[in-house]
Amino acid sequence: MASVAGLLLLAGCGDDAKDDKKTVPAGDTAAPLPGASSTDTGKNSGSDEGDNSKLDDAALRTKVQASAGATKTVHTVGTVRGQKGETRLDLHVDNVTKNYAGTLTASGRVVEVMRLGPDMYLKAGADFWTKDAKVNDPNVVALLQDKHVKLKADDPRFKNITAIAELGDIKSAVSDWGPTVQRRPEAEVNGKRMIVFADNDPQDGETLLYIPAKGDPAPVRLENKNPTDGGTIDWSEHNKPVTVTAPGPETTVNLPALTGETPAAG
């Protein structure tokens, strides 16, 4: 749990522009993008309707880790807090192919994001490119705004987007389930009983993991209590197929092909 808590903090922490780095917005709209879809034909990673609350901690941990590891796709929605304020995300993530699509929102600016193989696409208005990406040339901004800007998925200038997308990897939330993790009283999430585990890390603060008390025990919520750098991530639609479709060439701008200034976001 500690590793994902740290990733959540990383996703919420933006660096100053003077260091050639910048917070990249994260999304809050629930409507799927043209490039992403999940169908209703998928099923959760398990159909077991047993009462998970009757298991002891060791048995439950084993069951949770197995279910999380089998979760290939997930709808990830949440908010992370950071130095630049709140960042919201709404992403459909395929943890096998590493493809994803959705929205990231911060400071009222929405960025559509999409990863397909080695490529990433960003679509945002002029405010993002001037205020967040620090593009000062109005001619370049005119080329970028409201277009699907194509770049390499590992472009270091946009590393925060990659970090945020990794919050969809549920198995990371339970991969380092150490001795500091303790069971807490049950709670409810969206009207359903949840088993709660807590990890109180001196550096990251308290992190809570919510697991369904009945049925498939794949985690559905991660909550970090850090008041300045924490956040809440909700996982749903486990293993529903996610399809990411590249935008058409008529709306795509290839970032490496541009001359002049290029964004300094990261």
Automatic annotation (TrEMBL):
Superkingdom of the source species: Bacteria
Annotated stretches, region: Disordered: 14-54, 219-266
Residue spans of biased composition, Polar residues class: 36-47
Name of this chain's protein: Lipoprotein
Organism: Embleya scabrispora
Phylogenetic classification of the source organism: Bacteria, Bacillati, Actinomycetota, Actinomycetes, Kitasatosporales
